[in-house]
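Model it.
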Amino acid sequence: MSEEHKHDHGHDHGHAHDHSHDHKTRFHDPQHAAEFDRRTSEIRDDLAEKLADMLALQGDEQILDLATGTGRVARPVAKRLKTGRIIGVDQALAMLDVGHQHEDPIRAYYQGAGEADAVPFKSNSFDRAFVSFSLHHFGNPAGVVTEVLRVLKNGGRFVVLDPIIEEAKDSVDVALETKINQVFRRTHGDDFRFHTASSIQRLLTKAGYRIPRTNILSYSFNQEGMDGIPTGRHWLEVAEEVEKEAPELAQRLKKNYFTWHRHDDHVHVKGSFSYGLICGVKPE
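Modeled.
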């Protein structure tokens, strides 16, 4: 799999883990948390490094890792610190326990239990904050980004990394988006909802951030099965259902995201998924 293309919409003036927090049957389960931590993905690893780049660290920052999970994204960020530290907060204690038990501990990384929209910290406590692969799980995303704004210092950066879906251009796109979220909610709970890049930008702007930078990165794939593709298994569930139930949605899924061809017990997939890296800054 390779990075197909990237759009860097950067400008210097003004003008969020793949795990659910309310769906307790999975990420509050120790066995599932351990399995989650063992999964590897070149896409995730590359995005984590790009997130660390966007944080623009000097090395002495106090950083909030919201919905930290097992600390997988905290690890590459921590390597860029000298005297700073990362505080990871998550509601799922099983995920925190797995992160705490790593044979190779994450340097300058500390954990705490807490809700994403009510973190247990004083206002103006952090220089940086980030949330990765979790915004789509939050039932109250507006409350989350407002809470992060509260604990950030003036001028502090908040970076949101999340998978993004295509902007709906017609009623077929709207119906497909509804179907995608419906399938994912079976596993991840009723709060699950994919965002678009512009909806994340609106969320941050409405809360009071300025947005100096948005990167949209698309990763292509052409392979047998969905291994290594974040949430790929659930996307395949979407494909199989629309193929049976709604041919018009199946055609749009193929146009917007990926094609699939079954042969014997295997399925060949080809397409690309996009991820948004969006930086919000708390005004001075």
